[in-house]
Design brief:
Number of strands: 15
CATH architecture of the largest domain: 3-Layer(aba) Sandwich
Number of helices: 17
Largest sheet: 7 strands, parallel
Strand content: 15-25%
CATH superfamily of the largest domain: Glycogen Phosphorylase B
CATH topology of the largest domain: Rossmann fold
Helix content: 40-55%
Shape: globular
Number of domains: 2
Strand order of the largest sheet: 5-4-1-6-7-8-9
Length: about 450
C-alpha cells in the first residue's frame, strides 16, 4: 500500500498573479527546486505545504482558490521577511555556497539572533504545525522536507510525532565545519540537530554527505557512526519526458525562431540566476579572455546569458546584478555586440536556447548539483559541449563527458571555450550522447523512487 506523501518546501507548485482583467490566475511556481519536485511526485495522495509568497498568493488562499493537495501558509509578513531575507538567503545560502569565510563574516550578523528567533524559528514552527495537522489525519504518511529553509522543522515535528517517517533532502552543498564558524554556536547546533531528527537525510553527492558527518562530530560532538539518522547521496535529476514535451510547445518554438534569427555563427550559452554563487561575472570575463586570445572569432562567436533576477531585496544580490551589468558593458565596449544578456527570459526562453548552443557554460563557485548541466544536453541539437565547474555537484555524474574547469579561473574557462569550439565533431557527438544517456537513465523518477525505497527500508 502506498503511503500518503506530505511534501514541504518554502516555494510551492503554484504562484498567483493578476490577469489583464484583474482576476487571480494560477501559474507554475518559481524556482528550480519547484521545477524539479513537480515531476518527482509519483504519488496519487500528496499534500504539498509551502509558503504563500506574495500578496496574490495570500489572496488566493483567502479566496479558496488553491488546487487540491496544495496548502500555502499565511506567515506573518515581518517574520517571513526575517526568515527569508535575513537568515535563509544572505546567511545560510552564503555559508553553504562558500560565499562567506571565517575572516569575512556575514554583514547581517548583528541582526542574526533576532532574525533567527523571530523569523527562521517562527516560520519553521509554522511549517511544523501544518505538518502535524496533516499527520493527525494520516499518521503513517511520509513527510518530505526540502532544503535549507526548513532545517528546524523536522525536530519540531519529531517532538510531537516520535514515530513519524521524516526525510529531508538538502539541495545545496554542505561545507566543512570551520565554514559554519561564522555563525553563533547555538545556530550551528540547531541546524545540525534539526536535520538529525529525520529518519533519512539526502544529499546530492557523497562529498556533501561526508562533510555533514564531519560537522555532526565537530559541532554536536556526536559520533556520526552512532546516529539513528541514515544519510545517503542521491543526486536529483529532471523528467526527460516533460522536457521533451515542453520543448515542442508553441511558446518555446516561437522563442527558438527568434533565437535562430539573431544567433551568431557559434553560440556560447549561460543559463542561471543572477546569484553570486553562479559566478556570472567570472563567466563573462572568461568569454572576454577567449576573444582576446582568439581575435579571429570576434564577430563569429557570441555569448548569450539568460539570467533570472534573484532575491533583489537582499543588498548582496542587488549589488551583484549591478556588477553583472557593468561587466557586460565593459566586454561589449571592447568587443561590440559580442555578449547578449536577457534578464528574466523565463523557462521557455531557456528551453529554446538549449537547442541552439555550441558551448554551454555552467561554472558556479560551488553548487549542490546544477540542473542546467542536465537540461541543456538533453535538448541540444548542435552537438553542443558542456563546460562544467569541478565544484558543481553534477560534475560527479557528468564529469567524464564534460570539460571540467576550476571555479573562478578565468584563464582555464577561456581555454575550455576554445577547446569546446575546436573539438572534432565525432567527439562532440560522443560526449553529448553520453550525457543524454546519463540524464535519461538517472532521471527524476529514479531519484524519487530511490529515496522512497530507502525510507521504506528504514520503516520496516
Amino acid at each position: 500500500m502506498q503511503r500518503r506523501l506530505i511534501l514541504v518546501s518554502n516555494r510551492g507548485p503554484v504562484a498567483y498573479a493578476l490577469d489583464a482583467s484583474g482576476k487571480l490566475l494560477a501559474g507554475r511556481g518559481d524556482g528550480g527546486l519547484v521545477a524539479a519536485l513537480q515531476g518527482a511526485v509519483g504519488h496519487d495522495d500528496v499534500t504539498w505545504i509551502a509558503s504563500a509568497i506574495g500578496d496574490h498568493d495570500r489572496a488566493a488562499v483567502r479566496e479558496g482558490l488553491l488546487p487540491a493537495g496544495v496548502r500555502l501558509l499565511l506567515h506573518d509578513p515581518d517574520a517571513y521577511d526575517l526568515y527569508y531575507n535575513v537568515v535563509a538567503n544572505p546567511i545560510l545560502w552564503f555559508v553553504q555556497n562558500e560565499l562567506w569565510d571565517p575572516a569575512r563574516p556575514p554583514q547581517a550578523t548583528a541582526r542574526l539572533e533576532t532574525a533567527w528567533t523571530n523569523g527562521y524559528v517562527a516560520v519553521n514552527r509554522a511549517f511544523a504545525d501544518a505538518v502535524c495537522e496533516e499527520l493527525e489525519r494520516a499518521p503513517d504518511a511520509i513527510v518530505f522536507f526540502q532544503d535549507y529553509h526548513l532545517y528546524l522543522a523536522p525536530r519540531y515535528v519529531r517532538e510531537r510525532f516520535p514515530d513519524a517517517l521524516l526525510v529531508h533532502f538538502v539541495h545545496v552543498p554542505w561545507v566543512e565545519p570551520e565554514r559554519w564558524s561564522v555563525l553563533p554556536e547555538t545556530i550551528r547546533a540547531a541546524v545540525h540537530d534539526g536535520l538529525l531528527a529525520n529518519d533519512l537525510v539526502g544529499f546530492q553527492t557523497e562529498r556533501w554527505l561526508r562533510r555533514f558527518e564531519e560537522c555532526v562530530e565537530e559541532i554536536l560532538g556526536v559520533d556520526a557512526a552512532s546516529i539513528r539518522t541514515r544519510c545517503a547521496a542521491h543526486p536529483i535529476s529532471i523528467d526527460p519526458a516533460e522536457y521533451d514535451r515542453l520543448a515542442r510547445t508553441p511558446e518555446v518554438l516561437e522563442r527558438r525562431r527568434e533565437l535562430l534569427a539573431g544567433r551568431p555563427e557559434r553560440l556560447v550559452l549561460r543559463v542561471e540566476r543572477a546569484d553570486p554563487s553562479k559566478d556570472t561575472v567570472g563567466g563573462l570575463r572568461a568569454f572576454e579572455r577567449y576573444l582576446e586570445r582568439n581575435r579571429e572569432s570576434y564577430g563569429r562567436v557570441g555569448m548569450l546569458a539568460l539570467l533570472a533576477p534573484c532575491r533583489e531585496r537582499i543588498p548582496e544580490y542587488a549589488a551583484y546584478r549591478s556588477e553583472i551589468e557593468r561587466t557586460v558593458s565593459a566586454v561589449n565596449d571592447r568587443f561590440p555586440g559580442s555578449v547578449a544578456v536577457c534578464m528574466d527570459g523565463g523557462f521557455p526562453g531557456a528551453l529554446a536556447a538549449y537547442s541552439g548552443y555550441d558551448v554551454l557554460c555552467a561554472t558556479p563557485v560551488v553548487d549542490g548539483l546544477n540542473l542546467v548541466a542536465k537540461e541543456g544536453p538533453l535538448l541540444n541539437e548542435r552537438d553542443g559541449v558542456l563546460v562544467l565547474s569541478e565544484t558543481a555537484g553534477a560534475a560527479v555524474e557528468l564529469g567524464a563527458d564534460a570539460i571540467i574547469v576550476p571555479p573562478r579561473d578565468v584563464d582555464a574557462q577561456a581555454e575550455a571555450i576554445r577547446r569546446a569550439l575546436e573539438m572534432p565533431l565525432p567527439e562532440r557527438q560522443r560526449r553529448l550522447q553520453a550525457l543524454r544517456l546519463q540524464v535519461r537513465t538517472h532521471d527524476l523518477a529514479h531519484w524519487s523512487s530511490s529515496l522512497m525505497a530507502e525510507l521504506e527500508e528504514i520503516a520496516t
